[in-house]
Specification:
It is built from 16 helices and 26 strands. It starts with 27 loop residues before the first strand and ends with a strand. Helices cover 23% and strands 17% of the residues. It has 593 residues and is an alpha/beta fold.
């Protein structure tokens, strides 16, 4: 098998942004200089799960025409760029993350012309469109895989193949003990080819072989194809899984060690993942894709085409995705700290640590980003508690950098209740009725709630592909748009403030947990209005003295600019900072003007 040489990647000491950094019990403060910012650095990204956003033809499944019809709504709530989860041709075993044709649209979602219409409408509105790029694997129904099975010239080593090994009983066994995300062995025997192929996800999702330079070039061709169509960038799926440890001379791969995390031998967490994840070559591949983006812009002009990277990884690994002193990387490796470090029953110090871990490790010149939910995790309002909906939405747009909203977070949508009988998520379907609720991703993928009408205004058809969440009659766009005050209106106000405020776009920041429940962030910029975020994530009221913790940097009182849904403090009212009393879940944005 022709192998690409193992690439050397810069693993030196990362330059840390540690200006004015102090131990965690002190206020964390960083001063920033005013710089010219690119569009993505303060962007409001919005993730659309196409299957669940808006159905235009009554089949109960969201589609491209449905998305196009709602772009004005996204523009109205301040969205800069919409990121679409996979829309490519797929047998939908993993709902689009198993791609059978990287160059066409899944018929349920529409056609290439429908996608061109969506791009045209978005550009008319001044919005950008980001596509999901799924490079680690393809569907086993992809023509590339079929040709590889047949050992057709040029495709022999497109995927990770192995003869496996023979045990003491003379029986054929997989080439290693690796486990896949969807339970069980990560190796599948193919009778036709008489070899095993690697699949880190579902058995129908065969891992591409990135040690083959033809595969590397083919995936760059995919990027250029959609850039030519007019997309503004890509979110890279499963970026840390692109490479795995190399086999020995006999094609046998090294086994993983037992992790000790679980006794379930079919669960991927039963083993460590040191041989199948976080290989240094993955970082180099991000750098190569960044070069594709830059070359395209140099040739064709226009705004920066961005790379957003999915990476659940240790901080020192994730930060290398930004690039190094000689090579550019991704604009935004996704910051999942507010998901992985902040969960049900969280405290203010957990939020401080999540913020601190990113801002103090981010390389100099990097841009932060803040994410509280996505299509793989429980909805933000369900994890943090409904009362903290506004507090968390306000936080991600108050902190420096870009924000990412998963569809429905602006409304306070919660997880739907999906029975075993209605379960469609492959991850859950590969489990059993006793444990599926702990791993299913269906509850956060229920149809978007547009109104209190039939099917929540999502579809005119007889039923929706997943059952609706039970609260759709009260939590929806129509109701919240008409209400005097709502999660949606607060979200819009926050977005408008960020777009109009140089302080939020370019200002320095200082933050601290003042009690178990209360977290405070100050944003300031010379010659501009200073702003303060104060939130009580706790379950009981709390009073704090902000002045003694931000001594000499704040006036004695500030005015309310935005308040959470149940707050009794009205816009324009004065708050004395020496004693700020907050109800459970109450959040405020205060200003000096």
């Amino acid at each position: 098998m022709e192998k690409r040489p193992r690439l050397s990647v810069f693993f030196g000491v990362i330059t840390l942004l540690t200006l004015f950094h102090q131990p965690s019990e002190q206020c964390q403060e960083v001063n920033t200089a005013e710089v010219v910012q690119d569009w993505w650095q303060t962007a409001q990204f919005y993730q659309i799960y196409p299957r669940s956003f808006k159905d235009s033809d009554g089949d109960g499944i969201g589609d491209l025409k449905g998305i196009t019809s709602k772009l004005e709504y996204l523009k109205d709530i301040g969205v800069t760029a919409a990121w679409l989860s996979p829309i490519f041709t797929s047998p939908l075993v993993d709902f689009g993350y198993d791609i059978s044709n990287f160059f066409d649209i899944q018929p349920e979602y529409g056609t290439l012309d429908d996608f061109r219409d969506l791009l045209t409408k978005a550009k008319q509105l001044g919005m950008k469109i980001i596509l999901d790029f799924v490079p680690n694997h393809s569907s086993t129904e992809n023509e590339w895989f079929k040709k590889s099975v047949n050992r057709e010239r040029g495709y022999e080593d497109y995927y990770v193949w192995s003869n496996g090994k023979v045990d003491e009983k003379g029986e054929r066994q997989p080439p290693s003990n690796w486990l896949c995300t969807f339970r069980g062995s990560a190796w599948q025997w193919n009778d036709q080819r008489q070899q095993y192929y690697l699949h880190q996800f579902a058995v129908q999702q065969a891992d591409l072989n990135y040690r083959n330079p033809d595969v590397v070039e083919q995936m760059k061709r995919v990027l250029r194809y959609w850039l030519d169509m007019g997309v503004d960038g890509f979110r890279i799926d499963a970026a840390t899984a692109l490479f795995e440890a190399e086999p020995d001379a006999n094609g046998i791969y090294p086994d993983e060690e037992v992790s000790g995390v679980t006794d379930d031998k079919d669960d991927r967490k039963y083993l460590k993942t040191e041989k199948v994840d976080l290989q240094p070559e993955c970082i180099d591949m991000i750098y190569q894709w960044r070069q594709v983006m830059d070359d395209y812009q140099r040739i064709h002009g226009g705004d920066t085409r961005v790379l957003l990277i999915e990476t659940y990884a240790p901080m020192e690994y994730t930060m290398q995705m930004y690039g190094n002193s000689t090579t550019k990387g991704a604009e935004l490796p996704f910051n999942f700290n507010l998901i992985t470090e902040v969960d049900t029953g969280f405290k203010a110090k957990d939020v401080q640590k999540a913020v601190d871990d990113w801002l103090t490790n981010m390389p100099a010149g990097g841009t932060a980003n803040w994410v509280i939910g996505n299509h793989d995790r429980r909805r933000a309002a369900s994890r943090y508690g409904i009362r903290n909906t506004d507090a968390m939405n306000m936080l991600v747009m108050f902190l420096p950098g870009a924000s990412v909203t998963y569809q429905g977070e602006e409304l306070g949508m919660t997880d739907g209740k999906i029975s075993w009988e209605d379960t469609l998520d492959n991850l859950a379907c590969n489990s059993n009725p006793d444990i599926f609720e702990t791993i299913t991703r269906d509850p956060c993928r229920t149809p978007y709630q547009w109104s209190a009408e039939k099917n929540a205004g999502f579809s005119d058809g007889p039923k929706t592909w997943l059952p609706l969440a039970e609260d759709y009659k009260t939590v929806n766009v129509e109701m919240e748009s008409k209400a005097e005050k709502s999660h949606l209106k607060i979200y819009k106000q926050m977005g408008e403030l960020r777009k109009s405020s140089k302080t939020l776009q370019q200002g320095s920041y200082k933050y601290k947990a003042l009690s178990d429940g209360v977290f405070v962030v100050k944003r300031y910029l010379a010659g501009e209005e200073s702003l303060l975020y104060v939130a009580n994530y706790g379950e009981t009221p709390s009073s704090v003295n902000v002045l003694e913790n931000f001594d000499g940097t704040l006036p004695s009182s500030m005015n309310v600019k935005i308040s959470s849904l149940d707050s009794k403090k009205k816009a324009g009212s004065t708050v004395t900072l020496k004693e700020v009393t907050l109800e459970a879940g109450e959040a405020l944005v205060l200003g000096t003007e």
